[in-house]
Write a structure and sequence with these properties.
Oligomer: single chain
Mean pLDDT: 87
Distance between the termini: 36 Å
Low-confidence stretches: none
CATH superfamily: START domain
Structural class: alpha+beta
Number of domains: 1
CATH architecture: 2-Layer Sandwich
Number of strands: 7
CATH class: Alpha Beta
């Protein structure tokens, strides 16, 4: 599986950052590329299911996911259970990790994913997908920081 990890420091207490990351109602407000998002619960917990429509370049993906790990103020993990769309990954996990620091909170976003097409998927990842994923994650983290710090 490929892994892309991005970290940002947010000048707000850990509990405030967690309240944004853990609120499924806010996902579409800060996650770059999401057109629609709905979830079985307003506050994510183990077992919460999510349904999103995501734009990846000019491709629209419909993604089903399930929260597999939720540790308050520490970690939130969603595992993608199904992807509809030509350009979708075979597997993907989205993880948020939070850590208190002197100036507020360090927030790390991690995408673990596997593309289809065996060797071609690995080449495609190196040439394009990982770079696009990094840009999307950077925008997501910037959106989140702007919303929390204002």
């Amino acid at each position: 599986m490929a892994r892309v990890e991005r970290t940002v420091r947010i000048s707000s207490p850990l509990e405030k950052v967690w309240s944004f990351v853990n609120s499924t109602e806010r996902f579409s407000q800060f996650m770059e590329g999401i057109k629609e998002f709905s979830a079985s619960d307003r506050i994510a917990k183990v077992g919460t299911t999510g349904h999103m429509t995501l734009m990846v370049g000019d491709q629209e993906l419909k993604i089903e996911s399930k929260c597999t790990e939720c540790v308050e103020n520490v970690k939130l993990v969603f595992k993608v259970t199904e992807v509809h769309g030509a350009a979708g990954p075979k597997r993907m996990d989205i993880e948020w990790r939070l850590k208190p620091v002197e100036t507020g909170t360090e927030l790390t976003m991690i995408y673990d994913y596997e593309l289809p097409y065996s060797i071609f998927g690995k080449i495609l990842d190196k040439v394009k997908v990982s770079k696009d994923t990094e840009k999307t994650m950077d925008k997501t983290l910037q959106n989140l920081r702007n919303q929390i710090e204002t």
